Amino acid sequence: MGAPSSTTTTYESALLRKARWRPLEFVAWAVAFALPFAMPSHSLLVNEIAIVALFAMSLDLILGYTGIVSLGHAAFFGFGAYTAALFAKLVMPDPTVGLVVATALSAMLGLVASVTILRGSDLTRLMVTLGTALLLLELANKLDWLTGGADGLQGVVMGPVLGLFEFDLYGRTAAWYSLAVMLLLFLAMRRIVHSPFGATLKAIRDNRLRAMAIGIPVVSRLVVIYTVAAGIAGAAGALLAQTTGFASLDVLAFDRSADVLLMLVIGGVGWLYGGVAGAIVFKLLQNWLSAVTPQYWMFWIGLLLVLLVLVGRDRVLKPWTWLGKKKGGTA
Known about the structure:
Keywords: Cell membrane, Membrane, Transmembrane, Transmembrane helix. The chain crosses the membrane at residues 26-56, 62-85, 97-118, 174-193, 214-240, 260-285, 297-313. The chain is mostly helical. The protein has a single domain, classed as ABC transporter involved in vitamin B12 uptake, BtuC (Orthogonal Bundle). It is 71% helix and 0% strand. It has 15 helices and no strands. The protein is globular, with a radius of gyration of 20 Å.
């Protein structure tokens, strides 16, 4: 009678060991928070990287851990951006309240949209998720009296964070705000993926029919994780709108979904730091190459992707492995 209990305890201990922080992780996060102070001229870039890294991690929840392929994740990112901007403009400028509202409404949108990913093949999900994003894009374009249409939603003025920290021109407050939100949501995602719930997601990713056969409630798991991922993507979009004071159709565009997929290809799927690594590499390359060769920067990023496929991501991005990635992905 004691064997099942002992096995369960051993398995829970293994999950706790995987979730344990490594010393270099503390160093990495400390460096990230120190960057806006040490390099104030690059604070806006740090802010942008933090936002897209959070967006990439939200996609990794459904792609890397659950096996749901999506080309329309920008739907939730853009919905969160417009929600936060409209909330600040029409209701109140408090960024934290606006962030909570945008996250909650994006999660509700994800709950409604989750019915589109419950059936069909990967190709079907690609088309359906892409269609969802395109529908929202066209809706935002048509409702120009509310969203500003092609001109974007302008005149968004944000209040101080927690009533204390005003947004400055250098972007340091914005960077720290985005990093703090990213860290909090990273901790939540880390807890999810290293829990028994997260283990069932990996089982669904590996073999959905086998997961159903052993009693895992596949449908409810898919709905829950899709809702959570949508909420986190909406939070990333809200951060973008709040820190830039602007929301446009670009936040719902196909390019946004394609870019975040490229980040996961660069950083690796199935471990949360893959989204962070991919976002850093992608944004730094984009920032540098667009300054050096404005017309051909996409060619060089494409060349990097080909190199990753031919040589192997672990060899090209080996320095990131100390943050906890093991073969198969654990972080």
